[in-house]
Design goal:
It is built from 12 helices and no strands. By secondary structure, the protein is mainly α. α3 runs antiparallel to α5, α3 runs parallel beside α9 and α6 runs antiparallel to α8. It is found in: Cell membrane.
């Protein structure tokens, strides 16, 4: 699974770098998404593979904090990069004549820097508060990796501040900004598509954003199933978390390559 994830996403990155036909804003953000998928799957799956090989499930405090930090930051970055991709699709469909004027190199670079910066900065308060937890009910985490929610479940110290931060920051950074912006983008996209008179025109417009929409639905469904389920049912939560951390990064390059003529054409050109 990890090899498939690594190979698929690295292929996307290499194609975007080498093929000048893919030097567009859409594929620039797709390459960023592939980097996130490679990083997030490495952060989680390397520990699982290591534990399986060595039969040692222990983790040191430094590795514990590092995995928490990178797992949380990369999860946040993925949501924001998908939001940027939604904005790119909005401009491409709703303002096609101004597309390259709006989505120029400067805009794309600023969006990418913003997404990466927010992803790495937003997790710092969590890391600080986690480091202050001094008492746990058990030294076993009922999860396949060091994630925030399972750790909060076994904390004996006062974590009211951490819970409040999780709620407020979750609402602002993971619902209001990424979800609402993506939803607004697609509302305008759908309205614009419905105004197109020809069936072929509507089909072409929908085709340009179908891959991104598929990934968005897949990701948000797993996040909702993962974090809305009550805390006393960690078994299903672990399953959805594993799906989100391992299966989604593996499926992303498959979805984009199977539903994208440009990527398939670029791959054929590289094979010649």
């Amino acid at each position: 699974m990890y090899i498939i994830t690594l190979g698929g996403n690295m292929t996307i990155c290499i194609l975007v770098i080498l093929d000048h036909h893919l030097h567009t804003p859409m594929y620039f953000f797709l390459a960023n998404l592939s980097i996130v998928d490679i990083s997030s799957s490495t952060v989680t799956l390397h520990r699982i593979l290591g534990n399986f090989i060595t039969q040692d499930n222990t983790v040191g405090i430094f590795a514990f904090m590092m995995q928490c930090y990178f797992f949380g930051s990369l999860s946040g970055h993925e949501l924001f990069i998908l939001t940027a991709m939604g904005f790119d699709r909005y401009v491409a469909i709703c303002k096609p004549l101004k597309y390259y004027l709006i989505m120029n190199y400067r805009t794309c670079g600023m969006l990418a820097v913003f997404c990466w910066s927010v992803g790495f900065i937003q997790i710092i308060p969590y890391s600080v508060l986690l480091a202050k937890i001094s008492c746990f009910s058990t030294n076993e985490i009922n999860h396949f990796c060091c994630d925030l929610i399972p750790i909060m479940e076994i904390a004996c110290s006062d974590i009211s501040t951490l819970k409040t931060l999780t709620f407020i920051q979750g609402i602002i950074l993971f619902i209001i900004i990424p979800f609402c912006f993506t939803l607004i983008s697609y509302v305008f996209i759908i309205i614009t598509i419905l105004k197109i008179s020809s069936n072929s025109g509507r089909h072409k417009a929908f085709y340009t954003c179908s891959s991104h929409l598929t990934v968005i639905i897949l990701l948000y469904m797993t996040l909702i199933l993962q974090y809305v389920i009550p805390s006393n049912r960690l078994g299903p939560t672990k399953l959805f978390s594993l799906f989100n951390a391992a299966i989604v990064p593996m499926l992303n390059p498959i979805i984009y390559s199977l539903k994208n003529k440009d990527v398939k054409s670029s791959f054929r050109r590289r094979l010649r």
